[in-house]
Design brief:
By secondary structure, the chain is of the alpha/beta class. It has a domain of 198 residues: Metal-dependent hydrolases (TIM Barrel, Alpha-Beta Barrel), CATH 3.20.20. The protein has ten helices and seven strands. Strands 1-2-3-4-5-6-7 form a seven-stranded mixed beta sheet. α1 packs parallel to α2. It is globular, with a radius of gyration of 18 Å. The mean pLDDT is 97. The structure holds adenosine monophosphate, zinc ion and fe (iii) ion (2 copies).
Length: 287
């Protein structure tokens, strides 16, 4: 059998750990995936690959296949666009320079948001640091966790709908590249770019942007995701069938940070094999 078929399903290709805004270690995330019956799982922390080694070791010890991944931040006008990057070379200099830049912008932005929130609430930068693991990619979820720890909101969801909302007084945007550049960087690092949750409340990306992303090497869409809406899913399924694109389904597990559970959406074996076949940046880690 060729290498690319050594994995077994079910496969969940979108999970987060404390290396970004999940609430569990990379090893615990793989254990959670295993408990939910998955045989193949990817770790896709925001803008970092620092959890790969721990996740791979844990996955393999549980008899699972590990797919290295990342969720790269991008931005189009006012909306954030998340590009899942599978099997990239983690040392690719251009992609690394970009993730370094995004991560430092995220840190500065979190500090500014903390300052603004601190004018109205009893919240200090130390409270956010206390919720963030060393070296993790910082995001609004860490500020949310600090607000929860201080008893200022009940959970992350409440923080996001109120204090952390982009429409509120405390929000600060982060630096993120144009989605076309994000796709180019992932392809340049030998990876396979897939748009995460592409049919959420903000609606599908404008067709001309989608076309430019496809021309840059976009491989497909995360069609199975709890935030995707039915009308957008139908359109994406049609486009994907017409152009023979890859479609995935995944949980976007964040530990206790979101209700999403491992395996609530999965990716077919054929699609996982296509992702592995297409990648040149790194390889899955097999048990
Ligand atoms: P940021 O990139 O720092 O602006 O934060 C966005 C992150 O927050 C994404 O990874 C989402 O998974 C997470 N997020 C967005 N909305 C919510 C919510 N209502 N509850 C929990 N997490 C959320
Ligand atoms: Zn997240
Ligand atoms: Fe996302
Ligand atoms: Fe995610």
């Amino acid at each position: 059998m060729p290498d690319t078929r050594r994995f077994e399903g079910p496969s969940d290709l979108h999970l987060h750990s404390i290396h970004s805004d999940g609430t569990e270690s990379a090893a615990h995330v793989m254990a959670a995936a295993h408990r939910h019956g998955l045989r193949t799982a990817a770790l896709t922390d925001h803008d970092t690959t620092s959890g790969w080694a721990d996740a791979a070791e844990a996955a393999v010890s549980l008899g699972m296949t590990f797919i290295p991944g990342m969720e790269l931040s991008a931005k189009y006008e006012w909306r954030s666009v998340h590009v899942l990057a599978y099997l990239i070379d983690p040392d690719d200099p251009r992609l690394r320079a970009m993730t370094d830049r995004i991560r430092s912008s995220r840190l500065e932005r979190a500090r500014t948001m903390a300052d603004r929130i601190g004018r109205d609430y009893d919240l200090h930068w130390d409270d956010i640091v206390a919720q963030t693991s060393d070296g993790a990619t910082v995001g609004r979820p860490h500020i949310a966790d600090a607000l929860v720890a201080k008893g200022l909101v009940a959970d992350r969801a409440e923080a996001f709908s109120d204090i952390l909302s982009p429409r509120g007084d405390y929000y600060v945007a982060l630096y993120a590249p144009d989605p076309v550049l994000a796709v180019q960087l992932v392809v340049g690092a030998g990876g396979v770019p897939i748009i995460a949750h592409p049919a959420g409340r903000a609606g599908l990306l404008p067709t001309p942007l989608m076309e430019r992303m496809l021309a840059a090497g976009l491989a497909g869409f995360e069609v199975g995701h709890r935030e995707n809406l039915e009308a957008g899913i139908r359109t994406l399924r049609r486009i994907s069938a017409e152009r023979d694109l890859i479609i995935t389904g995944s949980s976007d597990y964040h530990g206790l940070g979101k209700p999403n559970q491992p395996g609530e959406h999965t990716t077919s074996d054929d699609m996982v094999a296509r992702i592995i076949d297409r990648a040149t940046g790194s390889t899955p880690v097999y048990p």
